[in-house]
Amino acid sequence: MSDYSHPARRTIPFFLSPTACPYHCAYCNQAASGQAGAHTPSPAFIARSIEEALDRAGTSSGLHWEAGFFGGTFTLLPLDVQTRLLGAVQPFLKDGRIQGLRLSTRPDALTDDQVLFLKHQGVTTIELGAPSFDDEVLVRCRRGHGAADTRKAAARVRNHGLALGLQLLPGLPGETAASRSWTLNQALALEPAEARIYPLVILDGTPMADEYRAGRFEPLSLDRAVRITARFFRSFTLAGIRVIRMGLQDTEELRRRLVAGPHHPAFGEEVKASVLQAGLIGIIGNQPPPERAPSAPMLVHLAPVHQSQVLGPGRSRLARLREATGRPGLEIRFDPELEPWTASAAGRVYSILEKACLGES
Hints:
This protein has helices spanning 31-35, 43-57, 79-87, 90-94, 112-120, 135-140, 147-159, 177-189, 207-213, 222-238, 252-257, 267-285, 307-311, 316-325, 352-355, and strands spanning 9-15, 64-70, 100-105, 125-129, 163-168, 194-197, 202-203, 242-246, 258-260, 298-302, 330-334, 342-345, 348-351.
């Protein structure tokens, strides 16, 4: 059985001013997406924030601690600013209190020399904004680079021994089911260590909001966004790629700026619940029919981590699962001995992800 679990990680985030980025992607409003009031933090602020985060956590064992710089296209900052920011983290890396340092940037803002510089400064993970691998979609959303730039940057990151992360945005204008599948397959081919999946939402103050209000573009519904992201999540996880976030973080600023699109305060849980239900339908459908009647009891064991995902508010998801499988006598119990994304039924252990049938929507 494949192991789909990952070590617990905690990232201490620092958001940078967007002024370093000269591009204006059609969907981008960094303030609304969680970086309101962001500025370039001082080394003292960085050190103090890390100390405070570690103190709050106390002696929590088994956690992999990282510092992370997000927004603002880090590698377009002046080199002396990059050096100051990264230098503030060095003492914590050297004494082992944090074990990683990550940052995000654009694919076309990352040369070999920059990767070597970042590696020398202790950076362990570079996340690339890779909204799509369809060049026509990238042009329409005014991204300013092509898919080839993403492939080249990804190769630089991996060739120099750093972990690669990708940030994907399904639901962009001009995207089709075929181009989504292309983007997913191209992302898998780059073998990143991890991915973030942010279905497009329309934020006030962006060109995309103007397109939406003029009736020239309609974002994904929440249901479609969940189904599409579920397919991405399943494919990445089966490939051993850690999905570290799905959907934008729910903040007051985001809710204030949100114009339209598939935002949900617990989007990632909705996606996992969708995958879980599809996998359980596949597993239960593989069982021989009850000898007496469909209402005969059937017991499935899951890892406790899936409790809220399979039961849902008021056990509503369990009710839907019973209806979908035609098993009103279905019962779910939780076994701490089971690994996440595995299920035990009729004396066998199954991979939920492998049994989940998630077609393109």
